[in-house]
Amino acid sequence: MSNYAMDVDVAKVGCPVPKIDEVKKELLISMNELYARGLKTSCQWSSDLLLSLEVGNNPKPLTKKIEGYKRPKITRSLLTPVPKRMLVAKSTDLYSIDQLPIPYKEMEFYLHARTCYNAKEYQRASFWLKNCSSKIPLFLKMYSDYLAADSNIKNIGSEATPSMFKEYRNLLNYLSQLLESIRQKKKGDGYLTYLLGVVYVKLEQYEAAVKMLVESINEVPLNWHAWMQLGDLIVDRVKLSKLELPNHWMKNFFYCQKYLDLQLNEQMLGMTQYLFNCGFSDSIFLQSRVAVCYHNKRYIEIAVQKFQELIEIEPCRLENMDTYSNLLYVQHQRVELAYLAQRAVKIDKYRVETCCILGNYYSLHGEHQKAMRYFHRALKLNPLYLAAWTLLGQEYMELKNSNDAIQSYSKALEINKYEYRAWYGLGQTYEILGMFKHSLYFFKQAQLLRPFDSRMIIAVGNVYEKLGNIDMAFQSYLKGRAMGDDEKLGLIYLAKLYVVINRPNDAAKMFLEYIEEHGLDEQTRDHSYAYMFLANYNLNRMNYDQAFHYAQKCLNYAETKEEAKALLKTIVHERIHMEIDNLLSTPMSEKQSKDKDYDKEEMPRQLELLSLTQKNEMNQNEDDDDDDDDDNSDEEEQLCNKITMYMEIVDEELYIER
């Protein structure tokens, strides 16, 4: 367990969940309030949670018709008018206008302003609410002012002038003073306090923002907007443990999200299991977080299965599908990724998730410029989109653009310093640049965040080896192997390190294990290195059959093909010399006693294999200068004489047998 790990104890960090029917009533009331104030994300989150409830803590029954029930037929006379009946709205009716605490004289202005707000015409909405003073219209007016200014400055982007930023900041200061005045006079509510916290965030007054958001959550705990804004400010595990939150069941969902953000995957799964047991087992929010958690834990097959289940439950949902596209990218599943990209474009091609999916699709096909275009488009839609910054850094590395890659990874860390992929990417970038001390620092930061990830540990070991610290490299490789070594990088690095420290027997053992575990995927540079080492290793120990076998494997790789040809010559020559010397030095009586154990066709078969491997090369070199032939004529003549003596001895043995 990591040094940062925190055991899940619901009594300490969470809160017991009340009966589900009480939760349902609370959600219905809250949804009405959220929708009235234009907090659409919170309202949608609450509605998703409402769908997952199991009323009465019993399993949700299957949808079926009630036996013996028939819907009565209603017949109406055309001559008899049906009297109109006024529907009395209950306290839990969703979007019931007559239940909103808005004065009658402000209701018409509020309704018109909300239609403008829904059309994202924020300035119009604010204009029609300028004379309203009740809490809901006042919140919608001030929230519209904030959104109008914020969206305007985002749309302008890099073209914004200093005067525009000054005007934007002046508006924020005006809103903060007005909201603080309302709060001091105790004329506001939890939603206005939440808006004050959001404004403080934009003004970079983070301590005041945390205070206001916690106060807002105490007053209106079902505003998921406030929880998420608070979560963005709590980016440290120590601060999370010291945070004083209300004793409300929504705190459990907040901890689920923060555990996931802070890479506390085991704690997140524990809290999720508790909520599943409390009746939220069908929550799409929780199921999607579990899928992302398995992605973080590198349980790729399980994560893919979880995402596929989410797609079956809600096919048009795009949230977290960018993470699913990362999994398909890692597994090189082009067909599935193409299908996901096509479906995302049909749903909404202007969502950041869609842009990320398309970026991964083009990157997998080697079209890195197109991939970068879509990642930039995602960042234009949301400059704080963490995944796009990290993936953009990877694309820059593919194009050998180290400077822009470093900037992208650094921007990702500014957004979330617990993004281990950005730390790891910076380590790789500086390693390529040859700045190994910088690379070691970044890899160690990634290892602190992912203490059980073998990739981080092995990356640290590889840099230690390049820095000449063989002992630390050796320890890191062994630790990486103990952690599972999913990609088998530790195995090949450890084998190469054994070669460096002159332990050939251990190196051969590691290379053999590597080849056995990667038998289905042999088209890598590491395989060619392993085969060449094993060929030389067996040649030095006069295991000519094994040496010949591994040398032939090396012919399949461009980087070792020429060396393998020369090695095959050496193996056959040494084998012939050894056999001839043994036959010449062995008495005739011993030759006859070993007739049955000696394979007389073995050497001709080796010679035939050698001739086949050399045939093309001999045809290409038949027009070479005669000087090279003269230089090697003496050696070839001596070899031919020995082969002739060998064949005469074989014929003599055959004659004796007859």
From TrEMBL:
<dbReference type="InterPro" id="IPR007192">
    <property type="entry name" value="APC8"/>
</dbReference>
<dbReference type="Pfam" id="PF00515">
    <property type="entry name" value="TPR_1"/>
</dbReference>
<keyword id="KW-0677">Repeat</keyword>
<dbReference type="Pfam" id="PF04049">
    <property type="entry name" value="ANAPC8"/>
</dbReference>
<feature type="repeat" description="TPR">
    <location>
        <begin position="352"/>
        <end position="385"/>
    </location>
</feature>
<dbReference type="GO" id="GO:0051301">
    <property type="term" value="P:cell division"/>
</dbReference>
<feature type="repeat" description="TPR">
    <location>
        <begin position="420"/>
        <end position="453"/>
    </location>
</feature>
<feature type="repeat" description="TPR">
    <location>
        <begin position="386"/>
        <end position="419"/>
    </location>
</feature>
<feature type="domain" description="Cdc23">
    <location>
        <begin position="22"/>
        <end position="290"/>
    </location>
</feature>
<keyword id="KW-0498">Mitosis</keyword>
<dbReference type="Pfam" id="PF07719">
    <property type="entry name" value="TPR_2"/>
</dbReference>
<dbReference type="InterPro" id="IPR013105">
    <property type="entry name" value="TPR_2"/>
</dbReference>
<feature type="compositionally biased region" description="Acidic residues">
    <location>
        <begin position="620"/>
        <end position="638"/>
    </location>
</feature>
<keyword id="KW-0802">TPR repeat</keyword>
<dbReference type="InterPro" id="IPR011990">
    <property type="entry name" value="TPR-like_helical_dom_sf"/>
</dbReference>
<keyword id="KW-0833">Ubl conjugation pathway</keyword>
<feature type="repeat" description="TPR">
    <location>
        <begin position="190"/>
        <end position="223"/>
    </location>
</feature>
<dbReference type="GO" id="GO:0016567">
    <property type="term" value="P:protein ubiquitination"/>
</dbReference>
<protein>
    <recommendedName>
        <fullName>Cdc23 domain-containing protein</fullName>
    </recommendedName>
</protein>
<dbReference type="GO" id="GO:0045842">
    <property type="term" value="P:positive regulation of mitotic metaphase/anaphase transition"/>
</dbReference>
<dbReference type="InterPro" id="IPR019734">
    <property type="entry name" value="TPR_rpt"/>
</dbReference>
<feature type="region of interest" description="Disordered">
    <location>
        <begin position="583"/>
        <end position="640"/>
    </location>
</feature>
<dbReference type="GO" id="GO:0031145">
    <property type="term" value="P:anaphase-promoting complex-dependent catabolic process"/>
</dbReference>
<dbReference type="GO" id="GO:0005680">
    <property type="term" value="C:anaphase-promoting complex"/>
</dbReference>
<keyword id="KW-0131">Cell cycle</keyword>
<keyword id="KW-0132">Cell division</keyword>
<feature type="compositionally biased region" description="Basic and acidic residues">
    <location>
        <begin position="591"/>
        <end position="605"/>
    </location>
</feature>
<dbReference type="Pfam" id="PF13181">
    <property type="entry name" value="TPR_8"/>
</dbReference>
